[in-house]
Amino acid sequence: MTRGRRYFLLLVPVAVAVVVTLVVNAEMFPDDYSYQRILFGPNDVQAEILPVNSHIAGYILAERPFSAYVVSSKSGYFEGNSDNVLMRWENVTNVTLDINVSGEGYYLVIKNGNASQEIEMRFKAER
């Protein structure tokens, strides 16, 4: 068997597995659904834009404390002042999300505590 044919026979099952994985993920997680499990370093911050005119339902989980905020920001930057923080959960290990988003420029901001950890976020935007 030639070398090229051998590589081709090895690549076909890998390509099929990748396509199947992408199709399954597309079916499991539609456009209005978000699932992430991310490794956060100490004091890392991540922001997720929230869709306009939607209801957000879901949760955020971690083993150690983190903080979560819903903020409004025209610049897309989390300034951290009390004027733009609409909701806050500080030093918690889980958050249940039940949020109505009326306009543009709303973000879900996650700030990890002082130890590295995985934080799991799962939420759905319903219009």
CATH class: Mainly Beta
- Helices, by number, come to 1
CATH superfamily: GOLD domain
| Terminal-residue CA separation | 57 Å
Architecture, according to CATH?
Sandwich
- Approximately what portion of the residues adopt beta-strand conformation? over 45%
- Nearest-integer average pLDDT: 80
Largest sheet: 6 strands, antiparallel
- Low-pLDDT parts are 18-30
The tally of structural domains comes to 1
Shape annotation:
extended
Instruction: Determine the fraction of residues in helical runs and give it as a percent range.
Output: 10-25%
Number of strands: 6
Q: Give me the strand/helix succession.
A: HEEEEEE
Please compute the radius of gyration using only Cα atoms. Answer: 19 Å
Give the CATH topology. Jelly Rolls
Sheet/helix structural class: alpha+beta
Descriptive overview:
The chain is of the alpha+beta class and 127 residues long. It is built from 1 helix and 6 strands; from the N terminus they run αββββββ. The protein has one helix at 3-28; strands spanning 33-40, 45-49, 54-72, 85-101, 106-112, 117-126. This is Multidrug transporter.
Short description:
With 127 residues, the chain is α+β, with helices and mostly antiparallel strands. It has one helix and six strands; from the N terminus they run αββββββ. The protein is 20% helix and 52% strand.
For this entry, give a set of tags:
127 residues; alpha+beta; Jelly Rolls; 6-stranded antiparallel beta sheet; 1 helix; 6 strands; 52% strand; extended; Multidrug transporter
